[in-house]
Specification:
The complex is a heterotrimer of chains A (257), B (200) and C (435). Chain A has 257 residues and is mainly alpha-helical. Chain A contains 7 helices and 4 strands. In chain A, 43% of the residues lie in helices and 5% in strands. Chain A has a two-stranded antiparallel ribbon. Chain A has a two-stranded antiparallel ribbon with strand order 3-4. Chain C is mainly α and 435 residues long. The C terminus of chain C is likely disordered. In chain C, the strands form 2 sheets. In chain C, strands 1-2 form a two-stranded antiparallel ribbon. Chain C has a two-stranded antiparallel ribbon with strand order 3-4. Helix content of chain C is 61%, strand content 3%. Classes of the chains: A mainly alpha (257), B alpha+beta (200), C mainly alpha (435).
């Protein structure tokens, strides 16, 4: 009996050790990310609307020259607080291809709110050609598509530091503390005051990185807040249901045990 | 059928107090479970309703500035063709001089347009759903100057009303609102209480 | 067994012509179940419920999904963003797959511990292994459908293993792919089969339950029920207990769906598939990791090259389970009365967990032990693989011969009624329930 319990504890300990070793081995291969506090990460987490609106500006003025956002529609911007008129105006600033017209020709027209974000390049080959062979990835899902999520994105943007002594960085690449292998093709995109925030928030690199990460967290997971809200209701409901079910079970089994 | 005698064997009749408390517990648990099942059902039903990107195309804005007098364009709205015709004064006159009582589907021209020169109708024949001819310059318009449906011969006039042929109703008028002189929003009726008859 | 007289005339009318109500009443309501089942017996009904959840969410998702290589990824994102409650349905389906495997693995280990695979339940066990295989095929194909990087590359790696089959391997693989690589034809047929197989699983589950009802459930003591004093009608006792267990399960399930929906997943699958860019680490979903570890653990063996040997070992590790009732010859079912077997059972659990961890590591990963020496993860994987096979092929047969089991109780009711004593003692220990 004792032996059995001992081996059972061994099994449990083994499982926990497995998890820890797994994460340790994983971390050893990857760079330790500067962990941030994100408003949306907790159980009742929500997005920061202000930060996301500023982050959209950062995207539009800095990132959009190379990175697409093709899974997001202009109308979605109303979710982060822009009015319908503002969104129409934003959309109208982009041209989308439409057609064919009655002559069979394709033509360009201003985007409507129903259209999705126009990518800076028509296809990947054009993107590579303009960027020395490197492909700037679409950012719609970036926060979910990388281990570390928002910490990774923030880390990249704030990770352009001087390389350690002796570290070779070939021409055309830049040292980045967070990017795998530390050599990234993207030049540092953020400089202090690169974007003029209309609400007067000082546009430091850290601030812009924070804001654009909040924005990209939303583009990757637009329904997070609804999910959290529903989750709280569902869990509370299930707690009540399970408690009732337990009471029923005990009642039903009362005579048997 | 031998049951283990337990306090809750299905047919047990305990004392009144015990029974009602137990029954209440069972009833409450069953009811809460039923509420759960019903709440879970809603997302499965609602997911078949139009999705957000489909709803975004519920209305379209059409730019009328490029259309010349006498010309017509076809816009696509909710998957359907919408005929937008810039009517000439003669066409308007023709539409208004008909005795409404003679029409198979009586309707005045005034009730079918907001701005007299702009006729906006859904280009689907009300008989069996073909798209009538008459949009392109030079195409057959039938005897009444409007549209001719080549499927079964229905003919519409310059107000889109059925004049002859098997179609039972006039070409339907979609809800629309003029945003300004040259832009019309198809899919939404004007908010003013005048309804379709009021000018934008 | 007297059939009940149903109160509703409509029900009686139908039942007279098609006795489905009487049948269900017999199989679910009055059906005698051992009275001493513990919570490890909840997992069968949980598995059935998860199967229904997966089918319903899957059908609904299929209303919006497009099985075309250039459209699949975007159609899934459309579900997540634009379809009403699409994000909820997708996350339920995605996490439901993981929950399904958690529940089924526990259900399997329960069977291993309590000897539920022994006579007369051998066929019941084998049907279960068939269900497991079908689940694995379904899950594998389902993961390909979003057409992310892991979808594509996981499919490429696994389907490539068929090339290991001598002579006909290449043709079989080309036939599977419908081309010369994983591409649109592969995606389309995986969608068709992914839609089909769950209904095949339903069929096998029905037969699995029929087989179960032939002799009734096993129980923690592993001894047969002797009469009505040892059992309870399934309703209301086990319906109430299953309802409670379901509540606990749903709490955990909802926890993942609403607060950790991507916990079991891989970030790389949020990148659209790119046949020209291989991800640095190709990992299957967590529930395949132990098999992945076995696959990679096997070296060249004699004239069989490592790739083929690995494939044989991987499939062998599951096929082995079919023969379990004949590998374990001990007439005692439950590990409660098999002290040695119990130890080895927990070592098996540990080995499987270790294999799972190994499967997630890079093949050349090394654990730093000393200053200049590291323990290759590969060796850990090999050790665990050897144990896995040894457990079934060596340990269990030997235990059947050499183990001295503890004496079994006289009956199920006895220990319950007399407060845990009443073990038949001495030389005349009640002969083990004949397996």
């Amino acid at each position: 009996m004792m032996r059995a319990r001992w081996t059972k504890s061994l099994g449990v300990a083994g499982f926990v050790a497995t998890l820890l070793a797994g994460s340790a081995a994983y971390a050893a291969e990857h760079v330790a990310l500067p962990e941030q506090e994100w408003s949306f990460n907790s159980l009742f987490g929500t997005y920061e609307r202000d930060a996301q609106q500023r982050g959209f500006l950062v995207y539009k003025d800095v990132c959009a020259s190379c990175h697409g956002l093709r899974l997001v529609a202009y109308r979605n911007l109303m979710d982060i607080g822009f009015t319908e008129d503002e969104v129409k105006a934003i959309a109208a600033g982009y041209l989308v291809q439409d057609g064919p017209d009655d002559n069979g020709d394709m033509y360009e027209r201003p985007a409507t709110t129903a259209d999705r974000f126009v990518s800076p390049f028509p296809n990947d080959a054009a993107a590579r050609a303009s960027n020395g062979g490197a492909l700037p990835p679409d950012l719609s899902l970036m926060v979910k598509a990388r281990a570390g999520g928002p910490d990774y994105v923030y880390g990249i943007l704030t990770g352009y530091v001087d390389p350690p002594a002796g570290f070779e960085v070939p021409d055309g690449l830049y040292y980045n503390a967070v990017f795998p292998a530390h050599r990234i093709a993207m030049p540092p995109p953020l400089f202090d005051d690169a974007v003029a925030y209309p609400d007067g928030t000082p546009a430091t690199v850290g601030q812009m990185a924070h804001d654009v990460t909040q924005f990209l967290a939303w583009t990757a997971e637009p329904h997070l807040e609804a999910r959290h809200r529903m989750g709280v209701k569902v869990l509370l409901f299930l707690l009540v249901l399970t408690a009732l079910a337990y009471a029923v079970k005990r009642k039903v089994w009362a005579g048997v045990h | 059928m031998a049951h283990e005698p337990g306090a809750a064997a299905a047919a047990a009749h305990a004392t009144g107090e015990e029974t009602t408390r137990r029954d209440f517990l069972f009833l409450a648990t069953g009811a809460v479970g039923a509420i759960g099942v019903a709440s879970v059902a809603w997302p499965f039903i609602d997911q078949m309703n139009p999705a957000a990107d489909t709803l975004a195309l519920k209305e379209i804005e059409v730019d009328l500035s490029a259309i010349e007098v006498g010309q017509a364009i076809t816009a696509k709205w909710q998957g359907k063709p919408v005929f937008i015709r810039y009517r000439t004064p003669e066409e308007i006159e023709e539409a208004r001089s008909v005795d409404v009582a003679d029409l198979p589907d009586p309707a005045t021209d005034e009730s079918r347009v907001q701005e007299a020169q702009w006729l906006i109708v859904i280009g689907i024949c009300t008989h069996l759903g073909c798209i009538p001819q008459g949009q392109l310059p030079g195409s057959a318009r039938g005897d009444y100057g409007g549209w001719l449906c080549s499927c079964h011969g229905s003919q519409y006039d310059t107000s889109g009303r059925i004049r002859s042929g098997p179609a039972p109703q006039n070409l339907h008028v979609p809800p629309y609102t003029f945003l300004n002189e040259t832009r019309v929003l198809i899919g939404q009726a004007p908010e003013t209480t005048g309804g379709e008859n009021g000018s934008a | 067994m007297a059939a009940p007289r149903f109160k509703s005339r409509i029900v009686r009318w139908i039942d007279y012509r098609l006795p489905v109500f009487s049948y269900l009443h017999h199989e679910l309501h009055e059906y005698p179940t051992p009275k001493n089942l513990n919570y490890w017996w909840n997992f069968g009904s949980l598995a059935g419920i998860v199967l229904v959840v997966m089918i319903v969410t899957g059908i609904v998702l299929a209303m919006h999904y497009t099985p075309q290589a250039s459209l699949a990824f975007d159609s899934v994102e459309r579900i997540m963003r634009d379809v009403n409650y699409g994000w909820l349905l997708r996350y339920i389906h995605m996490n439901g797959a993981s929950m399904f495997f958690i529940v089924v693995y526990i259900h399997i280990f329960r069977g291993l511990y309590y000897g539920s695979y022994k006579a007369p339940r051998e066929l019941l066990w084998m049907l279960g292994v068939v269900i497991l295989l079908l689940m694995m095929a379904t899950a594998f194909m389902g993961y390909v459908l979003p057409w992310g990087q892991m979808s594509f590359w996981g499919a490429t790696v696994i389907t490539n293993f068929f090339t290991a089959i001598p002579w006909i391997g290449e043709s079989i693989t080309t036939w599977l792919w419908g081309g010369y690589t994983v591409d649109n034809p592969t995606l389309n047929r995986f969608f068709s089969l992914h839609y089909l197989l769950p209904f095949v699983i339903v069929g096998v589950v029905i037969v699995h339950i029929l087989a179960l009802h032939r002799f009734g459930s096993n129980n923690p003591l592993g001894i047969d029920t002797k009469g009505p004093q040892d059992s309870l009608p399934f309703h209301p006792y086990y319906t109430a207990k299953d309802y409670f267990g379901l509540g606990i399960f749903l709490l955990i399930f909802a926890g993942f769906v609403f607060f950790g929906p991507n916990f079991f997943g891989e970030p790389d699958n949020y990148i659209p598939a790119n046949p020209l860019a291989t991800p640095p680490h190709i990992v299957p979903e967590w529930y395949f990791l132990p098999f992945y570890a076995i696959l990679r653990a096997v070296p060249d063996i004699w004239f069989i090259d490592a790739k083929l040997a690995g494939v044989i070992a991987m499939f062998g590790s599951i096929v082995l389970l079919f023969f379990l009732p004949w590998l374990d010859r001990s007439p005692v079912r439950s590990a409660r009365f098999r002290p040695l077997y119990k130890q080895f059972f927990w070592i098996l659990v540990l080995a499987c967990l270790v294999l799972g961890w190994v499967g997630a590591q890079s093949p050349d990963a090394v654990i730093r032990v000393g200053e200049d020496w590291g323990l290759p993860v590969l060796w850990i994987g090999r050790l665990a693989t050897v144990y896995y096979f040894a457990h079934f092929l060596v340990v269990m047969p030997l235990l059947g011969i050499f183990e001295r089991p503890k004496p079994l109780p006289m009956s199920i009711s006895e220990p319950v009624l007399k407060g845990g004593g009443a073990l038949a003692t001495g030389a005349h220990a009640k002969p083990m329930e004949k397996a």
